[in-house]
Structures are given as structure tokens and as C-alpha cells.
Write a structure and sequence with these properties.
- The complex is a heterodimer of chains A (506) and B (216).
- By secondary structure, chain A is of the alpha/beta class.
- Chain A has helices spanning 25-33, 36-58, 63-79, 81-94, 105-119, 130-134, 137-143, 153-160, 177-187, 199-216, 242-248, 269-280, 320-324, 340-344, 346-351, 362-373, 393-397, 404-423, 430-442, 445-454, 470-474, 476-479, 492-500, and strands spanning 98-102, 123-126, 147-150, 219-222, 226-228, 233-238, 252-258, 262-263, 288-293, 310-316, 462-463, 466-467.
- Among the domains of chain A are: 52-320, 3-Layer(aba) Sandwich (Rossmann fold); 444-500, no CATH class.
- Helices cover 47% and strands 10% of the residues of chain A.
- In chain A, strands 1-10-7-4-2-3 form a six-stranded parallel sheet, sandwiched between helices. Chain A has a four-stranded mixed sheet with strand order 8-5-6-9.
- In chain A, strand 5 and strand 6 (233-238) form a beta hairpin.
- In chain A, helix 3 (63-79) crosses helix 12 (269-280).
- Chain B is α/β, with parallel strands linked by helices and 216 residues long.
- Chain B has one domain: Rossmann fold (3-Layer(aba) Sandwich), CATH 3.40.50.10420.
- Helices cover 29% and strands 22% of the residues of chain B.
- Chain B has six helices and twelve strands.
- Chain B has helices at residues 4-19, 40-53, 65-78, 88-94, 115-118, 171-177; strands at 57-61, 83-86, 105-108, 123-126, 130-132, 137-140, 157-163, 167-168, 184-187, 192-193, 201-202, 209-215.
- Chain B is globular, with a radius of gyration of 21 Å.
- Classes of the chains: A alpha/beta (506), B alpha/beta (216).
- Chains A and B meet through helix 2, helix 3, helix 4, strand 1 and helix 5 of A and helix 1, helix 6, strand 9 and strand 10 of B.
- Strand 9 of chain A pairs antiparallel with strand 9 of chain B, so a sheet runs across the interface.
């Protein structure tokens, strides 16, 4: 298996989806890099959140033990997924809920639409949810004559601006307070025209606007952070209280959840509820966490009926089983959507979330999106595994220890193979030829020694980190974004041999 | 939806084919702390510090019914709250004595107060199921002291009475004591958002003011 560590430069036009853009990463990134306001907003936001996370993670003496547990629980979950989903279904059903299964985005959207239709309502309030973004639920509902109101502040900003989210946790991270004020002043019904750009004033404007909506809404739509198989309990983690409003006040609640979000035991939450808030918002605990089990109308020991009378859980596949089939890549399904990897990524910090063309941006998006859509050898998402310098910061902060750099390298290899099988190997790409040649040379010690000695003949063709002469035009795709190291007079092997024979000590 | 069973069968088939016949199931290591071992003074201090850090107000008082009632009244007066909703049990225990020098309208949530009417009530008084010191969390679980979730959500001020013997050190201690079948809300400070330039603003849709009366 050969592994290409460079960056493909093809541009392909394909129908876009919430997890696949219209342009490949290099093309989108080039444009983003030219936007100095975007880079300033992102640089500020990611450095603030990195500092907050580091401070609260530093407080926890058993952080690594928690990460080890989380990783094992997720591995166990994937290995036991069929029985855990069946157990979850049985427990949700026993507690008065109804479970639905959706093979893909279309099926999930149809199920939710029919459930909303059955209530006779034409509007729903929504809690921020990556799963419903992934399937494009809001757009689908709109086509069906149902208005979906996003109630998370950042989602509301993005929705009013008719923009796209650019971060998993803070979808409007690319917008400054001044830009947000403009969006509210021009697009929020009934807003005070004298609204200032103070974050508090903007948050209060959202409170006033959404209050009436919360109180009248009959249908809530949410995602779920976790679902416990042994009890049928679902959990949503949030900050503003919009989640509590949507999960508590409506008569009907519809939750769309990826099949990988299930956990075996109630006890497992003690691990994830410590890891998630500290990794995500950099808080010891997020302001509000809601747990509910089916419909909670007849729970022993409580004061009486509490929350929605009807509860529907939609279990979503949408490419997850394809990801699961890959032994290396399946760890991407362990993700708990904390977004710590985005905040530490030098590539994300400079290019922003939109460059990834998917609702899952950053390092986790670079391994998840192409696996969900499939590495075909000619898809724009094929470029995502290359959107990384492989520095490893994402792995260090990941609360469930997803080895993102290794998966990126694995996906690069799979991309090259997909490309080869698509082209039928008739015309091998230049990098495939170069890598095959390198592999031949490096397999044999003598060949390798001879090859490194001969490298010194290349010195006249390099200057100031750039190629000169005939090679420069052939290699331009590679060398335009990379410095070529200056070649030394002597190879390491020659230096070592000389040192061992007492020449000099270096 | 005639395809429901079909989709279920198909997804389970895909999963089984993806993970293979006998996938390796790891044993989950639990090397993290499950008991903090703090004494009651440390628990009280730590909970207070952590709640205050996230902008909750903490009022300490003795653990008798009279002392708690007086502390709750004091909070209502201090914040100028003229109407309050509470679970019936809380009304009987802590809200029978009218707050001194102020007319407070007390509404027991029995029969259930409508959502619209809750929006017109200034405050809610509840007890708690327990509290977690290290993370500054109070947990409501729908019992006779906590009431329905809606009453502790819609009013703008939440006064929550926590007894010191309800305070545990760590999340694992809390999870072990809680009943997952009950609807739960874990609360760490008043509602907040960091969605605008990651600048934290306290008070969005949930109660904008959280006062914890720590008894004992």
C-alpha cells in the first residue's frame, strides 16, 4: 500500500449536500485565506476557547483515566451495536416512546415530516443538532410547508443570515458582534432598531424574539448527545435553556439521533459528562443537561406528568454503517461532537469551517465527511484527508482518543487506491510513480545508500528552498506550497561511518 | 410508514456485516475517581465556590425548617419578587410564612399552572435531588421537592434549596444515586451563552438568576 502525503489539486463539480461542498478543500481554502476579517474572528475565538479548555482540563487529576474509559466504552459500543440498539428500542418503547429507523437522510426527513403532519402543526422549534443538519431537515421541512425555528443563539444567527454553520459548537464563530448586530437589525422580526452590538444586548434580543415561540410551540425537534441502552434514557447537553424549552414544553418531541450515539449503561454517562463540557465550552459543567426516558407521564416517585405527551426517536444510519465497516476509520464514529479538535487545528484556524464544505468541519470533519459520503476517487470530499499538517494536536485534545492523524493517513491511502481502481491503472499518476520508485529504493539497504549518495548531484537544482531547472516545472504542484530543504554535502550514513571510524564527533 | 420494519432489518443487517461475526469487546477500565472522600465542610465550601464562579448566588443558612423558610423569604425580599410558584410540598414546608414586609403571591403547582401563567410568575422555589461540589451542579429529578421541569424553567428567578447532606463530591457519586427513569435537569449556574465571539453572557432563555440556599 502506498501512501501519498501531498495534496490533490483537481476540482470537481458535484451536487452538494450538507456533508459535501461544491468545491474541493484547496479551492475553498484559498478563498477563505484571503478573508482577513474571517481570520481575525477565528483567531480570536479559537485562542480564547483553547485557553479555557486547558484551564479546566488541568483541574482534573484523572483526565487520562477518563479518556481511557471513554475510548473503551465507545469501542465496546461499536462491537455490540446491534444488541444495544435493540435494547434501547425496547426500553424507549416500554417508557411510552416510539422508535423509527432511517437508512438515509431522505428516509429520516420523510419520517419527521409525517410525524409533524400527524400533529396538524406547521411550525416546530429546534434544539441545535448535528444530525438534523447533516440530513438537511430544515430545508426539507420548508419544502413541505413546515417552518423550523432554530433556537440556539448561534444557529439562529446562521439561520437568519441564510448562512452556513462553520463550527460544531459555535456555528456563527466566523461572524463578529458587529456582523451579528447587522443580521439581527435587518432580519429579526420586531427587533429594536437601536440594538447595540454588545453580546448581552444581542442575547436579550434573541430571548425576546424566541420567548413567545417557545410558549406556543406544540412540536419540538432535537438531536441527542447520548442515549442509554439499559434504561432508554436520552440526554441533551446545552447552555442557554433553549434546549430545556424545546424538550419540556411542546406536546410532541421528535429526536433524530445517529445510531452510534448509544451507550451501554447509565453509569457510562459519569465518564462522558465529565469529558464533554470541559472539552467543548471549556466549562466544568455546561449550564443545563436534560435527561428523559420515553414520555415521562407516569414515572414513579415524581409529582406527575412531566414534559411531552408523545415522544419519537428516529435512529439514523446515513452512511454510518459504511464507516463502521472500516476497521481503522470506524473510530470516527466515537466522536461526541465536542469540537476541541477544531479549536486546536492550525488548518481550521486559518481556513475556517466553510472550507470543508460539510456541517462537520475541522479534523473530525476531515475524517468523518469523506467516510460518510464514500471515498470514490473523484469526489470533492476526497480532498479532506489532505486538509491537515498531521501535527497531532487533535489527537492530544480528543476526549475519546480518536487517533485522527492515523485515520487521515489511512484515508489518503484509500483515496489513492480508489483513484487507481477508478482509472484502471492505465495511466498512473506522477505521485504514484514517484512513490512506487521510492518504495523500490527504500526496500533495499544498498539501493537506499546509493540513492542518498546520489542526491548531492541535485544541489545545483535548488536555491533558497525552491527548485530550479527542468524539474521545477514538473514538480510545481508539490513544490509551490513547500520549501525544499537544502541538501547537505554528506549523507547521514557517510557521516555515521566516518564518526564510527574516529573521523570526527559531529 | 410501511418501510419501518424494512429499514430496521436493513440497518441491523448492515451493522452486523460491518462489525463481523465476533467483534472484540474490550473490558472498560474505570481508573478514574469514583469517590472524592471530602468531608462536609470541604463539600460546602467547594460547591459554594464553584456555583459562584458560574454566577449563581449562594446563601448559607441553618438546616431547620424555620431557618430555611427565613432564608428563602430573605431572597424573595432582596430580589423584590412579588410572585412565586413552587411544588405543593415546598409551599407547605418553606413558603407558609409570608415574607416579612412584602406581599408575595405564592402559587402551588397543583393543579398545574399553565405555561402562559408561569411566564407571568416572577420566581420559582424548589428543593433539589442532590448537588455535585466539584462541578458546581444542582440536580432536579421531578420528585416532590423539585416539581415539574416547566416550573423551574419558565420563571426568571430560580431559588433552589440544597441541604448539605445532599452534596456529593464528583459526577460518578451523583450518577450512582440518581434514578434514570425520572426526568432530570442538571443545572450549573444560570443559563448562559458564549455564541458571540465566545464572550460568556449569563442569562438567556432559562432563569437569568439562580440563587442556591445551602442549608446546614
Amino acid at each position: 500500500m502506498s501512501t501519498y502525503l501531498g495534496m490533490p489539486s483537481r476540482r470537481v463539480q458535484e451536487p452538494s449536500s450538507p456533508i459535501q461542498g461544491v468545491r474541493d478543500f484547496p479551492a475553498a481554502a484559498r478563498q477563505a485565506l484571503g478573508d482577513s476579517v474571517l481570520r481575525r474572528n477565528l483567531g480570536h475565538a479559537t485562542s480564547v476557547i483553547r485557553g479555557k479548555r486547558a484551564a479546566v482540563v488541568g483541574e482534573v487529576p484523572d483526565w487520562e483515566a477518563l479518556r481511557d474509559s471513554a475510548e473503551a466504552i465507545k469501542t465496546e459500543t461499536m462491537a455490540r451495536l446491534p444488541e444495544l440498539l435493540e435494547q434501547l428500542e425496547a426500553n424507549v418503547t416500554a417508557a411510552g416512546g416510539t422508535v423509527h429507523w432511517a437508512r438515509d437522510a431522505d428516509e429520516a426527513n420523510r419520517i419527521v415530516t409525517e410525524l409533524v403532519r400527524a400533529t396538524g402543526e406547521t411550525e416546530v422549534v429546534k434544539v441545535k443538532s448535528m444530525a438534523t443538519q447533516e440530513i438537511g431537515l430544515n430545508e426539507h421541512l420548508e419544502d413541505e410547508g413546515i417552518t423550523a425555528y432554530e433556537t440556539d443563539l448561534a444557529e439562529l444567527i446562521v439561520q437568519l443570515a441564510e448562512d452556513q454553520p462553520s463550527h460544531i459548537l459555535v456555528p456563527a464563530i466566523h461572524l463578529s458582534r458587529t456582523e451579528i448586530r447587522e443580521v439581527f437589525a435587518t432580519r429579526m422580526p420586531g427587533v429594536d432598531p437601536l440594538l447595540t452590538s454588545e453580546p448581552r444586548a444581542l442575547a436579550m434580543a434573541a430571548r425576546t424574539y424566541l420567548r413567545e415561540l417557545f410558549l406556543r410551540a406544540k412540536v419540538g425537534v432535537s438531536g441527542a448527545n447520548f442515549a442509554v441502552a439499559e434504561t432508554g434514557t436520552l440526554t441533551v447537553v446545552e447552555s442557554e435553556g433553549n434546549g430545556r424549552m424545546c424538550l419540556t414544553l411542546p406536546e410532541t418531541l421528535i429526536t433524530v439521533m445517529g445510531i452510534e450515539k448509544v451507550l451501554p449503561r447509565w453509569r457510562d454517562l459519569e465518564v462522558f459528562l465529565q469529558l464533554l463540557p470541559r472539552s467543548s465550552t471549556g466549562e466544568r459543567m455546561n449550564p443545563y443537561t436534560t435527561f428523559w426516558t420515553g414520555t415521562t407521564g407516569h414515572t414513579e416517585g415524581t409529582t406527575g406528568p412531566d414534559g411531552p405527551k408523545e415522544f419519537h426517536l428516529v435512529l439514523l444510519d446515513n452512511g454510518r454503517t459504511d464507516v463502521l465497516a472500516d476497521e481503522v476509520g470506524r473510530a470516527a464514529l466515537h466522536c461526541i461532537r465536542c469540537s476541541a479538535c477544531l479549536n486546536v487545528c492550525p488548518v481550521y484556524e486559518r481556513t475556517g469551517g466553510h472550507s470543508y464544505g460539510s456541517v462537520y468541519p475541522g479534523p473530525i470533519g476531515a475524517i468523518l465527511s469523506p467516510q460518510l459520503t464514500g471515498l470514490t476517487g473523484d469526489s470533492v470530499n476526497d480532498s479532506l484527508p489532505y486538509a491537515s499538517s498531521l501535527c497531532g494536536a487533535c489527537y492530544d485534545v480528543c476526549p475519546v482518543k480518536i487517533d485522527i492523524p492515523s485515520i487521515l493517513v489511512d484515508l489518503r491511502a484509500r483515496h489513492v487506491e480508489a483513484q487507481q481502481s477508478r482509472t484502471g491503472l492505465r495511466v498512473p499518476s506522477p505521485e504514484a510513480v514517484a512513490m512506487a520508485a521510492a518504495a523500490y529504493v527504500m526496500r533495499d539497504e544498498k539501493r537506499f545508500a546509493a540513492a542518498t549518495r546520489s542526491m548531492r548531484w541535485g544541489r545545483p537544482f535548488m536555491k533558497d528552498g525552491h527548485l530550479r531547472g527542468p524539474l521545477s516545472s514538473v514538480m510545481t504542484g508539490w513544490s509551490s506550497s513547500r520549501d525544499v530543504p537544502t541538501l547537505p554535502d554528506q549523507t547521514f550514513r557517510e557521516w555515521w561511518a566516518e564518526r564510527e571510524s574516529g573521523g570526527h564527533g559531529g | 410508514m410501511a418501510t419501518v420494519g424494512e429499514a430496521r432489518t436493513e440497518i441491523l443487517r448492515r451493522i452486523r456485516s460491518a462489525i463481523g461475526e465476533e467483534p472484540h469487546v474490550p473490558v472498560v477500565p474505570r481508573g478514574y475517581r469514583t469517590e472524592a472522600g471530602y468531608d462536609v465542610d470541604v463539600l460546602r465550601e467547594l460547591l459554594t465556590e464553584r456555583l459562584q464562579d458560574y454566577k449563581a448566588q449562594v446563601v448559607a443558612c441553618g438546616d431547620t425548617r424555620e431557618e430555611i423558610s427565613a432564608a428563602v423569604s430573605g431572597v424573595l425580599v432582596e430580589h423584590g419578587l412579588t410572585s412565586v410558584v413552587a411544588p405543593p410540598r415546598v409551599v407547605v414546608e418553606w413558603l407558609e410564612e409570608p415574607a416579612s414586609g412584602q406581599q408575595v403571591q405564592v402559587v402551588a403547582d397543583d393543579p398545574e399552572v399553565s405555561t402562559g401563567d408561569l411566564d407571568g410568575v416572577a420566581a420559582v422555589v424548589t428543593g433539589a435531588a442532590l448537588a455535585i461540589a466539584e462541578t458546581g451542579v444542582i440536580v432536579l429529578d421531578g420528585d416532590v421537592w423539585c416539581g415539574r421541569r416547566a416550573i423551574s424553567l419558565v420563571p426568571d428567578v430560580h431559588v433552589c434549596v440544597v441541604r448539605t447532606d445532599q452534596v456529593v463530591g464528583l459526577p460518578p457519586e451523583a450518577v450512582a444515586r440518581l434514578d434514570p427513569r425520572r426526568p432530570q435537569t442538571w443545572v450549573a449556574g444560570p443559563s448562559a451563552t458564549s455564541d458571540i465571539e465566545l464572550d460568556r453572557v449569563e442569562g438567556v432563555h432559562g432563569p437569568r438568576t439562580l440563587v442556591v440556599v445551602l442549608a446546614g
